[in-house]
Every structure is written in C-alpha cells, then in structure tokens.
Q: What sequence folds into this?
C-alpha cells in the first residue's frame, strides 16, 4: 500500500473510533473543607477523628453515585480560633468548597460560624465543638457531635440522686468548660444539691496538682471535672497522687475524663467512676459491633476508637447521605434542608437525629461505670436517657 493511502486509511479509522465511542461521563467533584486541630493541645483528638473519616470513606466510597467524587480538603487550625477562621475563609473564597465539616474546639467553631452566614456555605460540626450556643450564631450551622449540656445536666441530677449534698466543679477555662460547669451545677441544684466551690483551669498544658489540692481541702461530697479528653490521663494521675478518692470525695464527669483509648494508661484508678456520655466501645449494639470490626480490620491494635471517632464517622454518614440525595449538586439552603431532621437509627452510639428547630443533635445519653472486663477497663453503660435534646436551648429559648 502506498504511504499516502495508508496514512489516510489510519486517519479514517481513528475518526471512526472517535465517532463511535461514547463520550466519557462528566465527573462531579464535591469539595468539602475539613477543619480540625491536627496540632496544638487537642491534636490527639484530631487524630482519633481523622482515622474515622478515612475509614468511612474507604469503606463506603463505592456507594457514591456514578461520576461523583469527594475531595476532602484537610486544614489544621492549630487549636487556634483565628487560624480556624482564616482557613475557613480561604476554603470558601479560594477553593470554593460546598461544605465545611470537622471542628474540635468550640472557640474555633464560634469563629467560623459567622462566615457561613456571610458566604452561605454550611458548617456541619462533626467532631466535638460542644458549646451549646454555636448553632445560633448562623442559620448555616448544624451539629452531629454533642453538646456539653447534654452530658453535664444529666450527670448533675444523677449526682444529687446519690444523696451527695455538697458539690464542687473544676473545669477547663474556655467555652466547653463553662458549659459543663453551668450544666452540672443546674442539674445538681435542681436535684437538691448545693455547689460549694468552683475553679477554672488554664486549658493549655495545666499543672492539675494545685487545683486538685484545693478541691481536697474544700472537702465536698462530689467534684465534677471537665477537661479536654487529651488531658484525661494527666488529671487522673493527679487525682491518684493527691489521694482525692481516699479522702472520700466522689468524682464524676462527662465522657472526656475517661475516654476509651486512654483507659489502658490509667491503671485501676478509675474503677467504679461514673460518667455520662454519648458513646462507649462497650455499647452492646449491632451497629457498634460492625463499627468496631471495621476499625480493627483497618487499625488492628494500634488505635482504640472513642466518642470523637464515632462522631466523625456519623458526620461522614450525614455527608454521604447529602451527596447521594442530591447527586452531589446542592445549594447551601438545600444542604441545610437535608440536615434539618436528618436521622440515623443505626449509629454505633444508638439512634441519632438533628433537631429541625435547633439544628442540633438529639441522641441517647448513657450513664457509664468503669468496670474491668477480660482484664481491661471499659465504660459499661448502666443506664440510658433516651433521645436527649440540648437542655440549654430548652432552658434558654430564642428571644
């Protein structure tokens, strides 16, 4: 075949292929900004949450509709509200994200929230940031984690029901500590108890010994602690060193004091302690067993999940639900309409939903006792308060 004819034949064949081959499906990329404290004094908490996000995506990415891809853009707020605000601004204006998620610290969430209203980009708080008032800052904020009032108020009432009359609060000196202090005090006094002392502890690298000594000298019947979960072992060691339990002072807290992943480092000090929380690895639920099995397959014995892990996991359940329901194309208002009333009856922590009126999480609160099972300490759920709404919002309706 002459050279010229062969070139012409090949060109015609290529053209035929181009004509006959169907066009590639257009891909929809959903951009999500995930802001968390990967460094700073709660970096360990960010790691717990990120492991859950990565695992959920790995396990469920194949369930997304064809042609849809999630691009999750991680940003480190360094445990600093101003940094978090700047990062949110950059994600909104430069990266054009459709949704913000994550957030551990309440001051970071409070700094970001006004931007969501200005730009109409939703924020789904999916790790912690448990300050009750945060969703009221912007109509584009919803929460799937918890509030400290959900845990502090019930454990305050429980403490009063034990016949303890004199209570003392010792909390970290920022938004979640303040909420914890107020919620326990309200529950305890509603139950007939009296708060006889209170102390606030610097949140960054505190020396707990002077504060624990002050509590011991005050001789209350019960002390309520709240500190970031990353500081739990240090506080428990101070309790041991100063003999607080030997002084017949009862100890209680929200779940941050006894996170599941730190119990192995605490020895037998926490045995018998009662806390309130929304999750325990010891929870006997099929969804929790499935979650723990997936976690073990991925991380083996290198990491133990905690409440932050499950919150982040559920956050991804909600995000995937939104993407599937909208084929990845949604406005801010459509996203918020989806989140309002969103439900997951089979979370590892039990049934959960977002209250359509407050855009806040509704969930079971468990009263847990530290017990030893198979030689290991676990938070055993001994009582369930079903589907608790945020008490602060009920006590403080919008004006």
A:
């Amino acid at each position: 075949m002459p050279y010229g004819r062969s070139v012409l034949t090949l060109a015609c064949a290529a053209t035929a292929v181009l004509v006959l081959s169907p066009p590639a499906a257009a891909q929809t990329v959903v951009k999500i900004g995930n802001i968390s404290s990967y460094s700073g004094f709660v970096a360990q908490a960010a790691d717990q949450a990120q492991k859950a996000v990565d695992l959920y995506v790995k396990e469920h990415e194949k369930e997304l509709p064809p042609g849809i891809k999630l691009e999750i853009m991680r940003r480190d707020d360094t445990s600093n509200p101003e940094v978090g605000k700047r990062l949110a601004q950059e994600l909104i204006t430069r990266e054009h994200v459709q949704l913000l998620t994550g957030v551990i610290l309440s001051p970071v969430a409070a700094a970001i929230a006004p931007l969501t209203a200005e730009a109409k980009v939703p924020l789904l708080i999916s790790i912690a940031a448990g300050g009750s008032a945060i969703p009221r800052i912007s109509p584009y904020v919803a929460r799937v984690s918890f509030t400290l009032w959900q845990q502090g108020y019930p454990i305050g009432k429980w403490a009063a029901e034990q016949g303890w009359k004199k209570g003392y609060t010792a909390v970290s000196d920022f938004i979640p500590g303040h909420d914890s202090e107020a919620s326990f005090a309200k529950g305890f006094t509603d139950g007939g108890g009296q708060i006889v002392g209170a102390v606030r502890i610097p949140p960054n690298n505190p020396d707990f010994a002077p504060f624990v000594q002050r509590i011991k000298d005050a001789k209350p019947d019960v002390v309520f602690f709240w500190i970031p979960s990353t500081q739990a072992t240090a506080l428990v060691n101070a309790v041991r060193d100063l003999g607080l339990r030997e002084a017949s002072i009862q100890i209680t807290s929200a779940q941050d004091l006894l996170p599941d992943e730190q119990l192995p480092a605490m020895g037998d000090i926490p045995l018998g302690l009662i806390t309130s929380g929304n999750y325990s690895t010891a929870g006997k639920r099929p969804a929790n067993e499935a979650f723990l099995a997936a976690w073990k397959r991925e991380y083996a014995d290198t990491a133990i999940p905690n409440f932050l892990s499950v919150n982040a996991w559920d956050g991804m359940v909600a995000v995937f639900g939104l993407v599937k329901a909208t084929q990845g194309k949604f406005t801010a208002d459509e996203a918020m309409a989806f989140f309002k009333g969103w439900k997951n009856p089979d979370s590892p922590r039990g049934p959960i939903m977002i209250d359509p009126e407050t855009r806040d999480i509704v969930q079971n609160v468990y009263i847990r006792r530290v017990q030893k099972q198979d030689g290991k300490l676990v938070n055993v759920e001994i009582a369930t308060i079903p589907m608790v709404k945020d008490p602060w919002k009920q006590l403080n309706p919008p004006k």
